[in-house]
Amino acid sequence: MAKHDLGIDLGTATFVVYKRGEGIIIQEPSMVAINKRKGQILAIGAAAKEMIGKTPEEISIVKPIQDGVISDPDVIEEVLRYFIKKAKETFALSKPNLVIGIPALTTDVERRAVVDAAERVGAARADLVIEPLAAAIGSGIDIVKPDGNMIIDMGGGTTDIVVISLGGIVVSDSIKLAGQAMDAEIIKYVKRVYRFLIGESTAEQIKIKIGKAYEKEENIEMEVKGQDLKTGLPSSIKLNSEDVFKAIKEILDELISHIRMVLEKTPPELASDILKNGIILTGGTALTRGIDKFIEEKTCVKTRITDEPHLTVAKGTGILLDDIELLSRVSVDY
C-alpha cells in the first residue's frame, strides 16, 4: 500500500483522518462554508466553524453529515479531496487507498455516492466500514472471536448501540440522540429557565466544560455570554453542571431505554459475555462527565470509556489499512 493511504471517520460532529504510518493527522469539525451564489466552497473544518453566526447572506455553513445521514454527497467529494491533498506527500504519485467509516444509518445509495466521490478525487480504492465496527476495532477488541461485546458509539448526530461477535453485528439500534441533541436541549433549557439566548457553539462549550451526565458528579460553574431576552441586549449569566444535567436528563433516560432494549434482544450466551466484558463507550459524546457511571448504575453492567473515544473510529480504519483480511470481512457492500 502507498505511503499516504488514509483511514477516515466521516462523523456528524468531527472529521478525523488517520494516515498510514503516522497516525491521526486531521481532526476538524464536520462543517463546510459555501458561497451559495457561486457554488464555491470557501472553508472546511475549523475555519468554517469559526464563521457560524457571522456570515453574510450569500455564505452558508453546512454539515455534510446530519443525524447520521449523508446530506450532500457533492460536498463530501470536496471534503475527501481536501483530506487527500492535505495528507499526500508532494513526491507521492501513486493513488491512496481509503478506508472510510460511515454512519450506520446510511443507505446503499449514499454508500455508493461516497465510493464514487472517493474515486473521482483520486483514490485507488475505497472500502466502507460501519462506524461502530470500526470503533470496536479501534478500541482494541478482537471482533472475530466468538465473544460478545457491546459497543455504544456516541457521536454528534447518532448513538449506535451494537452487540458484536464473530466479526459482525448481532443486535443493534441507532438513535438520533447524541451530542448535538444535547446541545439543542441546553439551548432550550437556558432559554426557558433563564430567558437567555445562546448559540450552538456556546451550548457545546457548556456541555464540554461543565456538563455532567451523572447527578453525583461535582458541580462546576461557568460564565456564559449571550442575549438577555428580557432586555434584548448582550449580557452574561452563570450556569452550573446541575443546569446541564437537568437539560439533558430526558436524552439520557431515552438512551438507557434503548440500551435495555438491545440487551433484552441479545441471545443469552452473548448477554453472559457482555456481563463479563462490560459495555464499552466510544465517540466524542462519551467524554460527557459521568456518562459511564450513569449507564452502569441504570443497567447494572460495568461500563468503561475507551481511551480517546473521539478517535476510535479513525484508529479502527487505520488498523484496517494494515489488515486486509479483516477489512474484507467487515467492509460493507454498496
Write the layout of secondary structure elements.
Blueprint: E1 6-10, E2 14-19, E3 23-29, E4 32-35, E5 40-44, H1 46-49, E6 59-62, E7 65-66, E8 69-70, H2 73-87, E9 97-102, H3 108-120, E10 125-130, H4 131-138, E11 149-154, E12 159-165, E13 168-175, H5 179-194, E14 196-197, H6 200-210, E15 221-228, E16 233-240, H7 241-265, H8 268-277, E17 279-282, H9 291-299, E18 303-305, H10 312-322, H11 324-330
Parallel strand pairs: 1-9, 9-10, 11-17, 17-18
Antiparallel strand pairs: 1-2, 2-3, 4-5, 4-6, 7-8, 11-12, 12-13, 14-15, 15-16
Helix pairs in contact: 2-3, 4-10, 5-6, 5-7
What would you say this structure looks like, in words?
With 334 residues, this protein is of the alpha+beta class. The chain has eleven helices and 18 strands. α5 packs antiparallel against α7. It starts with 5 loop residues before the first strand and ends with a helix.
Fraction of residues in helix: 25-40%
The largest sheet is: 5 strands, mixed
Number of strands: 18
Unreliable runs, pLDDT <50, ≥5 residues? none
CA-CA gap between termini: 23 Å
What are the salient characteristics of this protein?
5-stranded mixed beta sheet, flat, 39% helix, single chain, 334 residues, alpha+beta
Short description:
The chain has about 325 residues and is α+β, with helices and mostly antiparallel strands. Helix content is about 40%, strand content about 30%. The strands form 5 sheets. The chain has a 5-stranded mixed sheet, with helices on both faces.
